[in-house]
Amino acid sequence: MTQYHQKKIAMINDLSGYGRCSITAALPVLAALKIQCCPVPTSVLSNHTGFPVYFFDDYTDKMEPYVEKWKELGLSFDGIVSGFLGSERQIQIVKNMITEFKGPETKVIVDPIMGDHGEAYATYTEAMCRKMKELAEMADVLTPNLTEACILTDRPYKKEGWTRKEIEELAKELLAMGPCGVVITGMREGQYLVNAVAEKGKAMTYIRRKKIGTERPGTGDVFSSVVAGVCVRGGSLTEGVALAADFVKDCIRRSEELQIPVENGVCFEELMGQLVRYKGK
Questions:
Q1: Residue 129 within a domain
Q2: Whole-prediction pTM value?
């Protein structure tokens, strides 16, 4: 019998003390999936920036000496996951970290958080977009939304009217950059949200779930954490996306039932049993 090996993921993202997003969401989600979450904070905030006021401490200058101690200790990881990155320098630090820590079995999952609704975020310069393309090339799994997929491929964005053929062409172009798997997330099809899953050598898969409730902060972090956790546990990418889509939908429904304020994200704590029951490999 193969000896059980608990998995470890290095999670590179900001730390918001309140609001259920980024590392604050990833840590309990990965723990429920029986994975040790090892945070690499890019910044520290009192609460996410969707609130009217917040404390913010840029952690860029501390990231390299922080990671250097991991190198001195000879640590290794089964997964390396990156979320929002605030500067070219942070993106380069993540690239260096992947080069240093990626082993033969390490899964690199990049969530290229760059924009939404057809526009890059105000903090994202053209130089940062180019740097993010370099990081995307190092990913095993890439999870852009439609806006980010268009930015990464220099394709024009359309608010609506995308055909399945166009989505497949977009996904193929992203796969050609280097990843083995691509998930184009959160596309609208009438009353449904669709996640398109593309893997090299496999037919495209579409995971459709009926949209409920309102958009909430942190759902993308929860989604990508579940996908990363399933992939690191040895599950398929399609399996991870399906579990993530179901879990996020159920969390939104429960948050609406409990009348959780939108800025407080989703109350995933109420439904962690769904993740704990995941068997993996």
A1: yes
A2: 0.95
